[in-house]
User: What shape does this take?
Amino acid sequence: MTTPLIQETPSGLYCEAGDFYVDPCRSVPKAVITHAHADHARPGSRKYLAAKEGRRVLRNRLGPSAQIEALPYGETTSINGVTLSFHPAGHILGSAQVRIEYQGEVWVVSGDYKTEPDATCAAFEHIRCHTFITESTFGLPIYRWPPQQEIFADINRWWKQCRDDGKPAVLLAYSLGKAQRLIAGVDPAIGPIFCHPTVQQLNEEYRASGVELPKTWLPSQAPARKDWGGVLIVTPPSTANSTWLSKFGDASIAMASGWMLTRQTQRSRSVEIGFPLSDHADWPGLLKAVDETQAENILVMHGQTGPMVQWLNENGKNARTVVTNHVAESL
Ligand SMILES: [Zn+2]
Ligand SMILES: [Zn+2]
Assistant: This one.
């Protein structure tokens, strides 16, 4: 049996012909990175190759000393005779699927992706291949996202209600990607938008990368402000019970995440309101993405892979689970 083009190793997905890893979980000589979330872009590797569009956010995450080579979407590079290119994954700014071609065989590693449009990043591109390595974070038929226009209308309605009640509206959202998508999608006419410093720093990287976002402020830029009624505060979930957040007084707390689709998780995260906005594909999105590749082999990773593998095998594909050490960072 010949060695597959990409193998599962303790350090992650490895392409022997090109001698590189994709999103390695350990330090390696050459790491090809799908996107800047910490579970995909880990510090410590000697060299990194990533999509140019996400270079600034990746630099923000990996630090000033990381050696990052950047390749624009759609351009190819050759590594020991292996042709590699990045294609938009629609997940966050600069997120990419990695297309790897060697001796006529094409593999695509999806990384995290969503098929819905997002004003803050390039739209997911369907790529034909022989083998597709897909994520399955929400790989269960119960996961079907409502149209995002409805979710944004709900968020705006909630924010207006907070304003009418004289309360600040706190929106818990993952700092890289989700926060910027929310800021770009809400109605800035309702009130000023304040951000946690981690979010604000990434907003600046997005703006410097050419993404338009409404004006956002750090609370420290409004030192005289005593009344936070009607402001929107975008902050990471980890700050939910922090002293940083308590200075805004009695606030309405909401969270935007795919997991908010069920009441149970809303209760377990002790938020008043959950908006089911995800940066991952839902069940129909995953199946459509898989179908469009026309790949005969599907390798499934992230989350509960079993149901999706079973569904694909029952529907004419050759599917199996990829075993990795992956723990998701952003949902
Ligand atoms: Zn991600
Ligand atoms: Zn991930």
User: Anything to note?
Assistant: Residues 37, 39-40, 112, 302, 328-329 surround zinc ion (ligand 2) (CB under 6 Å). The mean pLDDT is 94. The helical segments are 55-62, 148-165, 178-185, 197-208, 243-246, 263-268, 283-293, 306-314. The two ends are 38 Å apart (CA to CA).
